[in-house]
Specification:
Elements (H helix, E strand, L loop, with lengths): L19 H10 L2 E3 L3 E3 L3 H10 L8 H6 L1 H9 L4 H19 L2 E3 L4 H13 L3 E3 L4 E3 L5 E3 L6 E3 L2 H17 L5 H4 L8 E2 L3 H16 L14 H11 L21 H6 L9 E2 L6
Antiparallel strand pairs: 1-2, 3-8, 3-9, 4-5, 6-7
Helix pairs in contact: 1-5, 1-9, 5-9, 6-7, 9-10
């Protein structure tokens, strides 16, 4: 029987053994930052604990988890603590949902927006000489602050703006909050496709499982990817039974999650997490 952390007096998310796995993954992927100290332990375990105590974490599938002989057998084969693993998977699920379901849309950084402008100005193909500038293609830059917009069509002027912006970014090529931060509008939200939820859940949990070696003497599935896949189904991230199925009707290895994620190429998550500050 897995202990409910709400019932543990003086529970400390940063040091309690029940959160060993939680802290390991959180520190790897969501480390905290202090202006004076730099990188510090993740704040995610505390946020998760607070959300859990507030009833915001779905624990309705705990019995199914504890009763799953396949999942529990695999955990035993890898020497994993069932309670630790349960809370780790709950954290990962919650974090993934925060990044994919009604997540805050991530706008471009200031550096990215300036680079995009430079890229457009470069399409004019400027040919710069000491005393004049030729451009192969005309362009127009419009800025509107008040009622009367300013329009710049002169190729030389546009090229000089290009040069000024390029040199300015080169001068400040290192990371800077001024250039590499984004403006955040918490009301601008989006829902990402389910495959991105599966991708993120697999990314975090597979990293945790990767270095583990199974006990060959224990009779159980030792397929780490199948364990991830089964947790996707068991936690309700997907109701597709194939995530929980090891073999097809013909007796072949299904590898459903692996094959499903093979569709993912260069996955981007263009959002800010609505629950966890990273």
């Amino acid at each position: 029987m897995i202990a409910d952390i709400k019932d543990i007096e003086n529970f400390n998310p940063e040091s309690d053994p029940l959160f060993d796995y939680v802290n390991e993954v959180a520190d790897r992927f969501w480390a905290g930052y202090d202006p004076e100290l730099g990188e510090v332990p993740s704040f995610a375990p505390m946020t998760f604990y607070q959300r859990y105590r507030s009833g915001l974490i779905d624990t309705s599938r705990l019995n199914k988890y504890e009763e799953s002989e396949e999942v529990q057998g695999t955990l035993k084969a890898f020497g994993l603590d069932s309670a630790n693993f349960w809370y780790l998977c709950l954290l990962i699920k919650d974090h993934v949902e925060g990044s994919t379901i009604n997540a805050i849309t991530r706008s471009q950084t200031h550096r990215e927006e300036i680079k995009n402008l430079i890229a457009e100005l470069n399409k004019m193909q400027p040919d710069i000489h000491p005393n004049f500038i030729n451009v192969a293609t005309n362009g127009e830059l419009t800025l509107k602050v008040g009622k009367h917009p300013v329009r710049i069509k002169d190729g030389q002027t546009l090229t000089l703006i290009n040069v000024a912006l390029t040199e300015f970014l080169e001068k400040h090529d290192g990371y800077s909050d001024m250039f590499d931060s984004t403006s955040v509008n918490v009301d601008d939200t989006t829902i990402l496709s389910p495959i991105k939820q599966f991708f993120l859940f697999d990314k975090y949990l597979s990293w945790f499982l990767k270095p583990l070696e199974a006990n060959a003497e224990i009779y159980a599935s030792k397929d780490k990817r199948l364990l991830v896949s089964r947790m996707i189904y068991l936690l309700g991230i997907s109701n597709d039974k194939r995530f929980d199925t090891e073999y097809s009707d013909s007796g072949d290895k299904l590898n459903f999650l692996k094959n499903y994620l093979s569709k993912c190429k260069d996955v981007e998550i263009p959002t800010h997490n609505r629950y966890y500050l990273v």
